[in-house]
Amino acid sequence: MDQTRMQLALQERRQLQLHRNQAPLQPLTAGLLRGGGKDYLNFSGNDYLGLSQEPVVLKALCDGASRYGLGSTGSPLVTGHQYPHQALCDALCDWLGFDDVLLFSSGFAANQCMLQTLAASEERLLLDKLSHASLIDAAKHHAGGFKRFLHNDLSSLDKLLAQTLPAKAVVVTEGVFSMDGDSPDLAALSALCQRHAAPLLLDDAHGLGVLGSEGRGSWQQQGLTPASLQACMGNFGKALGGSGGFVAGSATVIDYLRQYGRHYIYSTALSPALCVALREAVLLCRQQSWRRERLAAHIQLLQQLAKAEELPMLASDSAIQPVLIGDTSQALAISDALKQQGIWLGAIRPPTVAPGSARLRITLSAAHQPAQIRQLVQALGQAYRGTH
Ligand SMILES: Cc1ncc(COP(=O)(O)O)c(C=O)c1O
In what residue span(s) does the Aminotransferase class I/classII large domain sit (predicted)? Predict the structure, then answer.
């Protein structure tokens, strides 16, 4: 593509108020971040349990770097899979109860590998309509094609499963949807998949650490077992406070991915120091249920206050609490008004969400204080009324 065409596309995005800026920021402790020399309350991060700033985890990162160095210096099947990687894999298996896991440099890569490797070329992928970009992009590359069922709608999935016959289908969904914060009925969805002998692949990026006993995830909270899923993707960039991702599954599924998963085989393994820190984060996440309890209390408080302010909240019980605005310029105006008052809450606009469904996506953390949540809702209520 020539640069003139790129400039035209960029200009179009600016005209539609869809051009995104990237300002350098510094996350601080206690739900704050610094940008342009000013401190803000941060309601846009994914550090759901506050582990990204946890001193024990940071010490593990420094110790890991002194002992193992900065990078893994190799792809996992050459020299990249080292003792810290194995210790992290063992901690994940012990926590989640899957036979084995593979680590990836991002959740995006983990999803790409999971879908592209586990669906056979003659099988069709069936994805929820609101699936994350990493799942949709993987599906677009799939030789067997893909279809999307209506969001969290089992009868829509049932119809697609019937239409797919005699070809086989592989079903893909998320434990908590990233832009809406809601969840499918996983027990019913799993039973439907079993009736059709269709493997189920789950992206639990936003459920891991937050939901279920010891934070095992949305599948565990809803009564599923590892055997209910062909594979489960999780990532380290949200509740665990780091970065990277993994796919968990049976010994056969994981060995198949290890042998055939191109994203795994041909990519530098995670930093070993990061793996040392992530293992510590996993242990704290399991043990410190007070973090989940604190987050749950914050979710409840936000919902109560938002109801009193009559804010148009989407129904969500997760750490993701979207305020549906609809119009892009209104969403931007509210976000700007909040910024003036020292609150960082980005507007989420198309193409990340469907046209006409721009929103302010509040994300809560155990690191927040109740007073910060009160401040947010009060400012949001004022700004919302000011634009309506
Ligand atoms: C549902 C979902 N899946 C996958 C990803 C990708 O994970 P990562 O950020 O680790 O690449 C994200 C992150 O934004 C997500 O929200």
Answer: 39-380
